[in-house]
Design goal:
By secondary structure, the protein is of the alpha+beta class. It is built from five helices and eight strands, in the order H-H-H-E-E-E-E-H-E-E-E-E-H. It has helices spanning 14-17, 23-40, 45-63, 128-145, 208-211; strands at 73-75, 81-83, 101-103, 109-113, 151-159, 169-179, 182-190, 196-205. It binds ligand 3IX.
Amino acid sequence: MTIELASAGDTEDPAAAGDRPSALDLLTQQVRDLVDAVVLTGVPQDELVEITAELAALTDRLRALRRTSRHPLAFDPEGVPRHAGNAVTGSANPYALPLVSRVTSDGTIRAELSFRQIHEGPPTSVHGGVSAMVLDQVLGQAVAVAGGAGMTGTLTLRYVRRVPYGEPLVATAEYLRTEGRKSWAEGRIALPDGTPLVEATGLFITPRLWTEGTAGSQ
Ligand SMILES: CCCCC/C=C\C/C=C\C/C=C\C/C=C\CCCC(=O)SCCNC(=O)CCNC(=O)[C@H](O)C(C)(C)COP(=O)(O)OP(=O)(O)OC[C@H]1O[C@@H](n2cnc3c(N)ncnc32)[C@H](O)[C@@H]1OP(=O)(O)O
């Protein structure tokens, strides 16, 4: 297999790397695969002990050089915030799905996604907090693209139907309105045919600190 990597240094600037994955992106995806494998593994105890020791050694190798700063926040040409360390969308965060969203011609945020077994809450269903995290993100992106980027003040959810994992789903969000530093959005996670599973409305508040030009220092 030949892997075309982004150039060294591109990881600091996702736009410069284009669509090519960086070595960090590939490591991150490998760790996601590892986490999936851990949840589902049935290998015997002694094998688990050996694997754990190997992982401890790999963890030490990664810790040999630690970042002293967070991953930078950037905006793609459509105005969607991109942050490699983000818990939902981050290409360099193994914990992230990762969720990849785009802006449609009418300004809707749209992301195709598929939850995995690691997201399980109730048997065979996705944990409600995981659904909330995805909706918080896409609603936040909707207000950011509309010019009202902010912190979540309130997020109200209605869990309509159980959310399955391992199946294609769609998350969408639309900006509603702005009053001063407050912006509202609504969205949903749905089946591909539009059947809603979780519906959300959210209020996002642009912190006074950001309007004073100190974003990112909090
Ligand atoms: C230099 C410019 C830089 C611009 C920055 C650019 C980009 C930022 C990038 C990315 C962001 C975009 C998208 C990200 C995508 C997804 C979003 C995920 C978001 C999160 O995952 S985020 C984590 C959870 N979130 C929190 O961790 C919030 C903790 N909290 C605070 O940080 C403060 O609390 C804050 C900032 C909310 C307000 O602080 P503040 O000092 O700026 O404003 P203040 O208190 O004066 O309130 C003003 C008016 O909002 C009302 N109000 C206040 N709080 C309210 C609430 N909770 N509910 C309802 N109304 C509320 C007041 O009642 C008043 O209302 P009124 O004016 O009518 O009296």
